[in-house]
Design brief:
Elements lengths: L1 H13 L1 H40 L4 E7 L3 H5 L4 E14 L10 E7 L1 H6 L4 E4 L7 E5 L1 H4 L10 E11 L4 E2 L11 E17 L13 E7 L1 H8 L11 E8 L1 H5 L1 H9 L3 H7 L8 H12 L4 E4 L1 H7 L6 H35 L1 H9 L4 H41 L14 H27 L3 H6 L15 H20 L1 H35 L7 E7 L7 H9 L4 E14 L6 H10 L7 E9 L1 H11 L8 E4 L1 E8 L4 E8 L8 E8 L38 E2 L1 H4 L3 E13 L13 E6 H6 L6 H6 L3 E8 L2 H12 L8 E7 L1 H43 L1 H9 L4 H41 L9 H27 L3 H6 L4
Parallel strand pairs: 3-9, 5-8, 14-21, 15-20
Antiparallel strand pairs: 1-10, 1-11, 2-3, 2-10, 4-8, 5-9, 6-7, 6-8, 12-22, 12-23, 13-14, 13-22, 14-19, 15-21, 16-17, 18-20
Helix pairs in contact: 1-14, 2-11, 2-12, 2-14, 2-15, 2-26, 8-9, 12-15, 12-18, 12-26, 14-15, 17-18, 17-28, 18-26, 18-28, 18-29, 26-29, 28-29
Length: 950
């Protein structure tokens, strides 16, 4: 046995090139696996840190906790740690522009609260005593109150009192306007020491009536330091933010139900979206929650990010992707390394035969191959593991450097020892499976077969007949190339299969990642602008779109913008696609008479031309652009929950006409006519402002009932479709309450010819603008300075929404996803490229004796080049003809499977990945073959033929 090990080691040293190539394959496979687990670990850790920064480092928030009950939380074995806040009261803010949010809500906390709450400083520092305070940024951007660091403010802090219910109103309830007043006020003076971002939803509800101001609490600090007991202030109420232990997190519903004193099974069922509750259970649950000991808020995203087992929804997709990619890495790496062993064994057939002839058993020969694999693994696995960790670290550092200044959160490098151990185990398994098959094959070699060496080439002479066209085009080199492929069909098949696997893998993973982005994009409506402007007007005043366009775009620092005027129309029984028609009928009780609301938005000329160009629509001025794709909540029976599903809406195509209906009213007070002095602006979800009350699930199909259609005198317009697209301009990305049509002003006004101009003036129109500004705060200040008090805009009321933080947060989230997704695509590409290089270069290297023999009997360089190039063409064409359709088929099947399980998207072939795959394969094969030919031409013919160790 020691002799076999010595012989194996000697062979590895003699065949240095093949040994190095195989070690590189092992290093890369191990590096990819360790990089994968490190990237997954880093991504998870980054998302956890991002969520902590965004919404706070807590799992469950308990409100209305008495000071005397605080010890129950501190001593609860299921709670790892807590921090507390104390509501000091509300104070009226003079000069606040947001009528739904007129208060400052003063909150007190200590060092733990400042550190673990979602108080993200922009300027200054946190409060250190009870006379200092930190204010939120949206006090200026939303409330238009400009208070700077260093200013001193006086607040009359008290309780909100509802005169209708004769009760105190809690901090997260919406403003009651005329029904509420402030009572028990106390004047307090503070120095502003910092400005922070708007606190997360868990600390300041979007419907809350007050902007959160945060001061310091000596009392809470004393309790946390153990110098004061909570029992001394039994009547004081706190909000306790608790962080569960990992064990408790896995049973969060039972733990939470026990703390608030409700039925555990009922609470767990209510929080499980895949389980449907009966009406009786729902009523019982609501009653129990009304009588619960505390009000709660669960930091759902942080819980799902940290609760790995059982895998929750948010990271289920991440770990599924990682598992799929790990499996692909193992399979392709096994194939890649196995190729090296197979080629090695093919060339050492005679050696194995000689060993068998002198008494080596099959077990010894098999052990020799496995010993070779082990020796290579001892070198490759440690180097690969360290290389993967180093590559991940470099990637994270580079991304952080490149994204400094615009990414709202930094990527965090994080390694996990269990994950790295798993990567090493998978690498060992990869090498084992790679060597096992080759070892069995080597052990079966008999001395006679080894001497004759005929097992590799078995072919009938009739199959070597060469088509005449090959000889005419490629000459004798082409003929020999064709015959060689036929003779060595097994080696040729190995090379083609290797390229096919790499091509299919790249196409499928690219599609998988694009599908993941689509699903995430449907779940998180991305804000593609940071300034939203709604405009309202008095009766009979219509605004010039081009004039507004100049106003909006004329301010310095505008990267992109759009100005539009929206008009509602209804379409009676439009030409639905089968899928969307069935959806609408199901939503509206199988009604066959389903009409739809269409929103025609008139854009300024520049925005319309840009939109038409982006959508690839020519002659767009001749009609309207129809957005013919929508996303809806559809119940998935397989997963027992609602999922987002994309649908094509209508059968309309360019040149078709849509009959759009509208109503003409005699009554000036009709809903469709703005009343005198009406300043209500039309808003949608894109322009939700602070203080808006959160709405429940709304119908987003744009259905119009018969009563609405028949109210008033119904008239129609024929709108010609200039083009159909699934793209939307900025500002309308998440709009789903009506079908979207876009026109320019000239085209829209032409519809109102023939005496209809008066009817146009009666129509209610909502004006809006969306802006991507370099500095949203500066743009908002400048815009309001130019419009306030300007007689030119005296009949127009502007409402500006600053969504800069939301845009940056979502951009950060998608950047994190992008780094992970495209990092995995690069990993898969590296696997494929390495596999192709390894297979082709090793094959060419091992055929050097064959090439030298051909050159020794008179083959010219030109014939030699022609032969190799023809082989390259055969390999490329055959591999791509098989690989590309197979990749499309598997990606389609993947889409079908995902739609059945937990998603619903329209399949679109990954064209970019396919084109990139074709180009890279052709260029790679050409480059490898050319490099190999250059090296082989410089080799000495006699020495190459004599050399047994290639």
């Amino acid at each position: 046995m020691n002799l076999m090990k010595t012989l194996t080691l000697k062979n590895l040293k003699l065949n240095r090139k093949r040994t190095i190539v195989t070690i590189i394959g092992i290093i890369l496979a191990t590096a990819l696996l360790s990089a994968l687990v490190t990237l997954v670990s880093s991504f998870q850790y980054s998302m956890i840190e991002y969520q902590k920064q965004k919404d706070g480092d807590f799992h469950v928030k308990f409100s209305n906790v008495k000071m005397s009950e605080l010890s129950e939380f501190k001593n609860n074995r299921n709670i790892e740690s807590t921090f507390e806040t104390m509501g000091m009261g509300f104070a009226k803010l003079d000069g606040c522009k947001n009528e739904d949010k007129p208060y400052a809500y003063v909150m007190a906390t200590d060092e733990a609260g400042f550190e673990r709450g979602c108080f993200n400083l922009i300027e200054g520092r946190m409060a250190k005593n009870e006379d200092e305070i930190v204010i939120p940024r949206h006090l200026k951007t939303n409330g238009r109150i400009d208070i700077k660091v260093g200013d001193e403010i006086t607040l009359d802090v008290g309780k909100r009192y509802d005169s209708n219910t004769e009760s105190v109103i809690s901090e997260n309830c919406a403003y009651e306007h005329e029904a509420e007043t402030l009572t028990d006020t106390e004047t307090k003076r503070y120095k502003v020491v910092g400005i922070m971002e708007r606190p997360g939803y868990g600390m300041e509800d979007y419907s809350a009536a007050g902007y959160t101001f945060v001061t310091y609490s000596d009392e809470l600090a004393a309790i946390d330091n153990g110098t004061k007991s909570g029992a001394s202030e039994a009547d004081t109420t706190l909000t306790v933010y608790s962080r569960y232990t990992q064990k408790a997190l896995r049973n969060k519903d039972a733990v939470t139900a026990d703390i608030i004193g409700v039925d555990e099974k009922l609470f767990e069922k209510a929080n499980n979206s895949s389980v449907e509750m009966s009406a009786e259970e729902s009523d019982r649950f609501l009653k129990e929650m009304e009588n619960a000991k505390y009000d709660i808020y669960m930091n759902g995203y942080l819980i799902s990010y940290e609760c790995v087992f059982p895998i929750d929804g948010s990271f289920k997709a991440l770990f599924t992707v990682a598992a799929v990619v790990a499996l692909i890495i193992i399979l392709t790496s096994v194939y890649c390394i196995k190729n090296s062993f197979n080629i090695s064994i093919t060339e050492k057939i005679r050696q194995y035969g000689m060993l068998a002839s002198v008494g080596a058993t099959r077990r010894q020969i098999k052990s020799s191959v496995k010993t070779e694999a082990a020796m290579l693994g001892v070198v490759g696995i440690p180097v690969g593991t360290m290389s993967g960790i180093l590559a991940s670290l470099i990637l994270v550092k580079v991304v952080n450097v490149l994204s400094a200044g615009w990414l709202n959160v930094a990527l965090n490098f994080h390694t996990s020892l269990p994950a790295l151990i798993l990567a090493v185990i998978l690498s060992i398994a990869t090498i084992y499976f790679s060597a096992t098959g080759s070892a069995r094959r080597a052990a079966k070699v008999t001395p006679l077969e080894a001497i004759r060496n005929t097992k590799e080439i078995k072919i009938k002479s009739s199959k070597l007949k060469t088509p005449a066209i090959i000889g005419r085009i490629w000459g004798i080199g082409g003929v020999i190339s064709y015959k060689n492929i036929k003779r060595n069909n097994k080696k040729y098949r190995t090379t083609v299969t290797s390229i096919v696997i790499c091509s299919v893998t790249f196409i499928v993973i690219s599609y998988f990642m694009s599908m993941a982005f689509s699903i995430v994009g449907m779940s998180y409506a991305s804000a593609d602008y940071n300034i939203g402007i709604n405009m309202s007007y008095k009766k009979d005043i219509h605004i010039d779109i081009e004039k507004l366009s100049k106003l909006v775009s004329g301010i310095e620092g505008v990267d992109d913008y759009l100005v539009g005027a929206g008009y509602d129309f209804d379409v009676d029984k439009p030409e639905y696609t089968k899928e969307y028609g069935e959806y609408c009928r199901q939503v509206y009780d199988n009604s066959e008479d389903v009409s739809q609301m269409f929103l025609i938005t008139v854009l300024d000329d520049k925005s319309y031309d840009k939109y038409a160009s982006d959508a690839g629509i020519k002659n767009a001025a001749a009609g309207a652009i129809l957005v013919n794709k929508g996303t809806f909540d559809v119940y998935n029976e397989n997963s027992s929950k609602y999922v987002k599903k994309e649908m094509e809406l209508y059968k309309y195509k360019a040149g078709d006409t849509i009959e759009c209906g509208y109503n003409v009213y005699d009554d000036a007070s009709s809903d469709y006519n703005a009343a005198e002095g009406d300043t209500e602006s039309s808003t949608d979800d894109n322009n939700a402002v602070e203080g808006d009350t959160e709405s429940g699930t709304e119908d987003n199909s744009g259905y119009v009932d018969e009563e609405t259609i028949n109210n008033g005198v119904r008239k129609t317009l024929d709108v010609t479709i200039a083009g159909v697209t699934d793209k939307v301009p900025i500002g309308y990305k998440s709009y789903s309450y009506a079908t979207l049509l876009f026109m320019n002003q000239k085209g829209f006004e032409s519809l109102w010819a023939d005496g209809k101009s008066n009817e146009l003036k009666q129509r209610y129109v909502s004006y809006s603008a969306y802006v991507v500004a370099e500095n949203a705060d500066e743009y908002q200040d400048t815009f309001e300075k130019e419009t306030e008090g300007n007689p030119e805009y005296s009949q127009i009321s502007f409402s500006v929404s600053n969504l800069d933080k939301q845009m940056r947060d979502e951009k950060s989230l998608f950047t994190l996803l992008g780094v992970f997704a495209y990092g995995l695509i690069v990993v898969i590409a590296l696997i494929g490229i390495t596999n192709i290089i390894n297979t082709l270069s090793t094959g060419m290297e091992l055929r050097s004796r064959e090439f030298a023999t051909l050159r020794s009997i008179g083959m010219t360089d030109k014939q030699f080049v022609g032969m190799v190039r023809l082989e390259s063409v055969f390999i490329s064409v055959k591999a791509l003809v098989i690989g590309v359709p197979l990749g499309i088929l598997i990606s389609y099947l993947l889409c079908v499977i995902m739609n059945r399980m937990d998603g619903a998207i329209i399949y679109e072939p990954p064209y970019k990945a396919i084109i990139l795959c074709i180009v890279v394969v052709i260029m790679l094969i050409y480059a490898i073959m050319k490099l190999s030919m250059t090296k082989l031409r410089h080799n000495n013919i006699i020495e190459t033929i004599k050399n047994e160790n290639l």
